[in-house]
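Suppose a colleague, Dr. K., hands you the sequence of a protein chain of 671 amino acids and asks what its three-dimensional shape might be. Before reaching for any lab equipment, you can write down a predicted structure in C-alpha cell form. Begin with the sequence itself:
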Amino acid sequence: MTENRKNEQIDQNINHLGPFMVDKKWAYNSYLIPVSHYFVCIDITPLHVYDLFKTSIEKYASIQDIKYLVIQHFTLSTLHALIQFIEDGFSGVVITNAFYGKEIKQSGINCKLEFIEDIEYRLNIGEKDFLLFHPMIFLPYPHMFMTYSSVGLTFFSSMLCSSYFEDSLSKMDIIKKQAFQFHLENMPMSNYLKPLLDLIKSTKHKQICPIFGHLLKYDFKDSVIDYLYKHDFYNSNQYSAKYKTIDDVRIYELIQQVLVHLSKYYSKHDIVNIFLGSPYHLEHDSLMLKKSTLEGYKLYHGIFEHIYAKKGLLWLSIIEPIVNKFVETYQYELPTIYRSLVVQMNKEKEELEKRKNELESNFQKLTIHMNEIKESALRCPFTNLYYQSVLSELMKAKLETKREDSFGLLLIQLDQLVSINKRYGKETGNESIRNLSYLINDILKLDQQLFKQYGPGLFLFSHQINEKESKRLIQVIKNIVNDSQLFIEKVSVTISFVLESEIEKDIAIELQVNQLFDLLEKRMFLLKNSDFKDIKEEQNEKSILSEGKILLVDEDETNRNMIYRIFKRIHYEVVLASNVEQALKCLDMYKIDIIISEINLSKIDGFQLKQMLNENTSYQHIPFIMVSHNKTLENIKRGNALDVDMIIEKPIIPEELIGHIKRFRERWMKV
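The predicted structure, expressed as C-alpha cells, is then:
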C-alpha cells in the first residue's frame, strides 16, 4: 500500500513533494520551485501515488499555477499520471527530451511540449534564475537527463545519486551503502557515473535531489559522491563473471538495454520465444542474457542478425535509436545487419527515386497532352478559333453580370461555300472559311472576338454594340470580303445579327443564350430564303417562321435540350419549364399551342398540373401530351380520366413525337 512519508528538510526556496512509497524500499520524490507568479514542478509520480502527489502540491499552490513540468524519468505509469494531471487543470508546458516527447506525442496527449535539445539545454525562469539540463547516457536508460537549478543551487539528479529508502536518516554509512546498492542493481556500470559525478563536483551546489530515496545535503552529498566515485562495479549481478573486458561488459549492457526497450512494445513471452534454440539464452522473468555460445564481436553482430531473421525490419527499427546511441558513445561500428540493410535501402531508395522521376516526367507529358487535347476540342482545327461552346459560356457570364451596356452577336456565312466544296473539295472550302476569319480578324476592335459556329459560319461577338454600329460593321465585312483576292473565286457573305436587348430577361440564363442563337439562325434562314437582303426586315421573321409555341415541362435538363432541338429544327418555338410553378408562369406570359409534360415532377406531378389546367377555362382545351419512362396501365387510366391527349413512353422517338405534334397543329389550325 502506498503512503506519503514525512517530508525531509530542503532549501527554503524549494518545496519537497514526497517521499511517496511506491514499494517496500522505493520512495519517489518530486519537487516544486516557486518562481515569481508561477511554479516549476520537477518530475511527476507514477499513477498509483498520484493522489498523494496532488495533495502535496495543493499545500503550496494550485495545479493551474504550475507553468512548467520537467519530466526526467518517464514510464507508462507516469504517462497515465500526466493525463490525470492535465485533467486536473495543468495547462502549462512539459519540458523533456526529444525521445520522451515523441512517446508523449504518440500517446495522443494534448499538451504543450518543449524539448531540451531545442532550447539548447537551458530554460530561463523568473528574471534572473534558470534551469540547465545535462544528458545522462545509460543511467540506467539510453535517454536520460538531470537538471541543475540556480534556485537553491540544486541538482535534480534523476536516478543518479538515488538510494533505497529507510526512515532513519542519521547514519551516513547506511545512506552511502543504500545509494551504492541502488546503483549496483540498477545501473549498467560505474564508468557511466563518473563523468556526471565530476560535473556535480565541479558545479557550485548546496544539495542533490534525486528521484528515488534520500535527499543529499551538506556533508552527506559529498560523502555519497566520493563513495560512488571510488567503488567500481560492472553490474556483476547481471553479467557473468567470465566476461571481464570492458568490451564484453559494454556489449552485454547494450543487449540488456535492447531487451528492456523491446519489452515496452512486446510481451516477455514474445521476446524470449524468438531466442529459443538459439545461441542466446535469456532468463524469462528478468529478460537477462544469462549466457551465450558467442563472444565479443560475434555476439555483437550475431544477436541483431538473429532478431532480423526472426522478426524482420520492424524490430530492428524499434531498437535502432539505442544501437545508434551506443555506436556514437563508444565509437563502435554499426552492426553488420544495419550496414547491409542501409546499403540495400539506399539502393532501393535510388531505384524508387528514379522511378518517381520517370513517373513525374510521364505525368507532366500526359498533362501537357491532355491540355492539348482539351484545347483542341475547344478550337476549330483549321481556323484556330474557339468553338461555339466557349462563346456560350462567355455569354452566360455576361448575362449573369448586371450591366448597362448591351452586347451583340453576328452570324457570318459564305454564300458560295456549298458550291466551293462541290467544285474544289472540302479542303478548299475549309481554306475559304480560314481566309474569311483572317480578313475579319484584321478589322476587329479589342472588345470583339471571332468564334467558329458548329456549322458553316463564324460568330462575331461584340462586348458593347448597338443596332446602328452592328449594321455599319456588317457593311464593312461585306465590303472587305467582296474586295478580297484570297478566295479561289469571287465570294459574298450573308450576315444576321442579334442584340442582347432583344431577348426575354425573365427566363433562365441558359434559355437566354439559346434564344440568342435561335434568333440568329432564324434570321439567317430568312435572309437566305427570301428575295430581300435588308437587315431591318428581319423583325418579321418570327411571324413568318414560327409554326407554333410549345410549353415543355421536364426536370431533366438532357430531355429538355433534346426536345428543344427536335422542334427548333422544324421552326417551333419551345418555352422551357423545370416544374409546375414555372409552367403556370409561362402560360400567363405566352400564348401556348401545346403542352408536353413529364409525369414524374417534384412536389406537383404532371397529373396534378393537368388537373389545375382543367379547372381553368383559358387552359383546359390546350392539347396535353405526357411523357414518361413508366407508361403503365394505371397511368393510362389516370390520363384518360383527366382528358390527357396522349402518353408517350421514353426514350422518345423524335419522328413519332413530331408526327403527333403536326397532327395536333392541323387540328388546332382548323379550329
